[in-house]
């Protein structure tokens, strides 16, 4: 084994990013980590200044000038992409006229680890870069754990919030959700219709067939209301057998009357629970936000209630608009 080979073997262990160059600047040996940066370009045999561009000192443009920089710090980068910035130190070899040039990444180590998929095995065991890599890995693991925890917490908060605004029996929104929605619509000056629906003869189903049958009827009624409304409408259960439907940006009375008619028609169809027929109907009252100069939730709800009570007085299973009551009163 030649002296050059022995020296190269020693350098691979101590500084795996070394270059062994001859007096003409040709690379004779390259450390395994350095070669890993250019797997498609064998560094051995290349001219040092053909592979690397010297950034500082700017005065170095020839190999003799490079060899004269013993002990001085070099700043350089690859000529080709990725143009990773490196630091270097030149150590001339006695008698041969060549030199050992030891390279490192400096502050660009994190970019290098990312660009070249380097691991701790690519560095000398005493290189402080290993400790930095461990710190980076630990930080990445901690950030990932924190991100995962935050996602779980956000999911739990969303689930809790959804549960707080949901009627557990029917899956509809509850009164709290309705109040929140009305406040949002009114503060945003949105126009809307509010339909108050009450199930007729529901108490009779409960009394005769039991609460399980009553729960079944409520669930079926909720399903019908969702089917007969738009995806951006809100259906809420606000009492035992009372429901409110909020139609954003819909104030046409003929359209609302048509929707109410479909609801009444479907809800009076008998429902079968455990071979028992459950017969109900629906009375509906509707009020519009546009009927009020300064709309507020309490006034609109009260107006819809008045219309609902009128539907009850008129024989149930029908729909009344608050606007018709207002005109009758005037």
From TrEMBL:
Q: Which Pfam families match?
A: GGDEF (PF00990)
Residues of the GGDEF domain: 190-324
Stored InterPro entries: DGC-Regulatory_Protein, GGDEF_dom, HNOB_dom_associated_sf, Nucleotide_cyclase, Rev_trsase/Diguanyl_cyclase
| Stored NCBIfam families | GGDEF (TIGR00254)
Protein name from the UniProt record: Diguanylate cyclase
């Amino acid at each position: 084994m030649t002296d050059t080979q022995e020296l190269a073997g020693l350098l691979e262990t101590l500084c795996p990013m070394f270059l062994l160059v001859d007096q003409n600047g040709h690379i004779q040996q390259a450390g395994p980590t350095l070669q890993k940066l250019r797997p498609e370009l064998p560094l051995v045999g290349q001219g040092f200044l053909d592979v690397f561009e010297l950034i500082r000192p700017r005065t170095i443009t020839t190999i003799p000038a490079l060899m004269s920089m013993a002990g001085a710090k070099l700043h350089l980068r690859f000529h080709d992409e990725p143009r990773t910035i490196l630091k270097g130190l030149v150590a001339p070899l006695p008698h041969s006229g060549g030199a050992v040039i030891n390279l490192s990444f400096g502050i660009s180590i994190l970019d290098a680890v990312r660009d070249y998929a380097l691991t701790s095995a690519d560095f000398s065991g005493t290189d402080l870069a290993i400790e930095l890599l461990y710190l980076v890995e630990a930080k990445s693991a901690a950030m990932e754990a924190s991100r995962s925890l935050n996602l779980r917490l956000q999911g739990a908060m969303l689930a809790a919030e959804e549960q707080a605004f949901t009627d557990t029996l029917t899956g509809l929104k509850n009164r709290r959700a309705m109040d929140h929605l009305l406040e949002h619509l009114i503060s945003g000056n949105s126009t809307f219709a509010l339909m108050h629906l009450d199930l007729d003869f529901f108490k009779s189903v409960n009394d005769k067939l039991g609460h399980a049958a009553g729960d079944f009827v409520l669930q079926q009624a909720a399903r019908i209301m969702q089917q007969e409304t738009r995806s951006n409408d809100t259906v809420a259960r606000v009492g035992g057998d009372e429901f409110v439907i909020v139609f954003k940006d819909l104030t046409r009375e003929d359209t609302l009357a048509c929707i109410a008619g479909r609801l009444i028609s479907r809800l009076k169809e008998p429902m079968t629970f455990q071979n028992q027929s459950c017969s109900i109907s629906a009375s509906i009252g509707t009020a519009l936000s546009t009927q009020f100069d300064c709309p507020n939730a309490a006034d609109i709800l009260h107006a819809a209630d008045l219309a609902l009570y009128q539907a009850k007085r008129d024989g149930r299973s029908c729909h009344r608009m608050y606007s018709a009551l207002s005109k009758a009163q005037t």
